[in-house]
Amino acid sequence: MIRSKIIGTGAYVPDRVMTNFELESIVETSDKWIQERTGIKERRIALDGIPVSHLAFGAAERALKDAMLDPLDIDMIVLGTVTPDMPMPSTACIVQHKLGAARAAAFDVSAACSGFLYALSIGDQFIRSGMYRRVLVIGADMFSKFVDWSNRDTCVLFSDGAGAMLLEATTSKQESRIVKSTHLFSDGSQGDKLYIPGGGSLNPASHETLYDGLHYVKMRGNELFKIAVKAMVDACHVALEQNNLRVEDIDLVVPHQANIRIMEAIAKKLKIPMEKVMVTIDYYGNSSAATVPTAFDKARRVGKLQEGDTVLAVAFGAGVTWASSVIQW
Ligand code: ACO
């Protein structure tokens, strides 16, 4: 049986740190409110003129270095993003060119904050089917360019970042760095809970769409909160069941970082101690499709992820979409 082995990981966030105190001078908010209601202390924001492909390229380069792999060895690039450089070409193609990965097929996947796990699932299927040997999977987003910086409901939450994983086909029976399973879910009836109405074929960019603020993120945070908790808990149960795992078998949970209270609620419902949950929201905020791969990479670097660990990754985002994956490290 062919399976995907993770041969490299990488993350890249902008250097520019924006603290809650800085936000206090932009909108009517406070460091106390943001920390208490979201868990965020600071976030990374890209400078003007830096596109999301720059972050994705940075993460990919680091994953390639980690795997000691030549870009020409990549067969496919799958990039989860909803904040591409532009509608076309795909950001994956832009990254392919920047990397010099001339042999790779490249395309984007739109699943918002679940984008990385969707991309991972697609990459894993191409490897399992035998079609490709090496797939670069990236989650990258740049919400700083899509939030209304005068709206405190959203501008305090989102951030910019990118994370990547390199998958390689293996037929070995060894359970080391293996993508055991991926599970994808969607419910389009909840699409109005989080969306960007302008700039597509429904509301093409015009003076009116600009004036009406249709290019900014619209979010019903409260309603999303409840849906997100239930969906992610369900996705965790599916992942556990399909791998014949008990909750106690999980060594590390790598969840989407939308709100510390969402993560705490999931941990409580699953009866998993917070010590087993990777948290990066305090210093990185919600970087959408980038949260899971950057948190995974960070867990490796800080020693929170150990050889032999069973990892449960889970995400939720606009669509709405949600997803989970079990990785045997
Ligand atoms: N600073 C101070 N006060 C604020 C701020 C702020 N930044 N934002 C909102 N408030 C106020 C509100 O106006 C409200 O005031 P009121 O009671 O006078 O009306 C009060 O705080 C409470 O507002 P709520 O919306 O009820 O606050 P809540 O505790 O629900 O937190 C939040 C809001 C953080 C958005 C939360 O609902 C949340 O995290 N939701 C989930 C987000 C999510 O999951 N997104 C999906 C993934 S992201 C993706 O896919 C790209």
UniProtKB/TrEMBL annotation:
<keyword id="KW-0012">Acyltransferase</keyword>
<dbReference type="InterPro" id="IPR013751">
    <property type="entry name" value="ACP_syn_III_N"/>
</dbReference>
<dbReference type="GO" id="GO:0005737">
    <property type="term" value="C:cytoplasm"/>
</dbReference>
<comment type="subunit">
    <text>Homodimer.</text>
</comment>
<keyword id="KW-0275">Fatty acid biosynthesis</keyword>
<keyword id="KW-0808">Transferase</keyword>
<keyword id="KW-0276">Fatty acid metabolism</keyword>
<comment type="similarity">
    <text>Belongs to the thiolase-like superfamily. FabH family.</text>
</comment>
<dbReference type="Pfam" id="PF08545">
    <property type="entry name" value="ACP_syn_III"/>
</dbReference>
<feature type="active site">
    <location>
        <position position="286"/>
    </location>
</feature>
<dbReference type="GO" id="GO:0006633">
    <property type="term" value="P:fatty acid biosynthetic process"/>
</dbReference>
<dbReference type="InterPro" id="IPR004655">
    <property type="entry name" value="FabH"/>
</dbReference>
<dbReference type="InterPro" id="IPR016039">
    <property type="entry name" value="Thiolase-like"/>
</dbReference>
<keyword id="KW-0444">Lipid biosynthesis</keyword>
<feature type="active site">
    <location>
        <position position="113"/>
    </location>
</feature>
<dbReference type="InterPro" id="IPR013747">
    <property type="entry name" value="ACP_syn_III_C"/>
</dbReference>
<feature type="region of interest" description="ACP-binding">
    <location>
        <begin position="257"/>
        <end position="261"/>
    </location>
</feature>
<keyword id="KW-0443">Lipid metabolism</keyword>
<dbReference type="GO" id="GO:0004315">
    <property type="term" value="F:3-oxoacyl-[acyl-carrier-protein] synthase activity"/>
</dbReference>
<feature type="active site">
    <location>
        <position position="256"/>
    </location>
</feature>
<comment type="function">
    <text>Catalyzes the condensation reaction of fatty acid synthesis by the addition to an acyl acceptor of two carbons from malonyl-ACP. Catalyzes the first condensation reaction which initiates fatty acid synthesis and may therefore play a role in governing the total rate of fatty acid production. Possesses both acetoacetyl-ACP synthase and acetyl transacylase activities. Its substrate specificity determines the biosynthesis of branched-chain and/or straight-chain of fatty acids.</text>
</comment>
<dbReference type="Pfam" id="PF08541">
    <property type="entry name" value="ACP_syn_III_C"/>
</dbReference>
<dbReference type="GO" id="GO:0044550">
    <property type="term" value="P:secondary metabolite biosynthetic process"/>
</dbReference>
<feature type="domain" description="Beta-ketoacyl-[acyl-carrier-protein] synthase III C-terminal">
    <location>
        <begin position="240"/>
        <end position="329"/>
    </location>
</feature>
<protein>
    <recommendedName>
        <fullName>Beta-ketoacyl-[acyl-carrier-protein] synthase III</fullName>
        <ecNumber>2.3.1.180</ecNumber>
    </recommendedName>
</protein>
<keyword id="KW-0963">Cytoplasm</keyword>
<comment type="pathway">
    <text>Lipid metabolism; fatty acid biosynthesis.</text>
</comment>
<feature type="domain" description="Beta-ketoacyl-[acyl-carrier-protein] synthase III N-terminal">
    <location>
        <begin position="107"/>
        <end position="188"/>
    </location>
</feature>
<dbReference type="GO" id="GO:0033818">
    <property type="term" value="F:beta-ketoacyl-acyl-carrier-protein synthase III activity"/>
</dbReference>
<keyword id="KW-0511">Multifunctional enzyme</keyword>
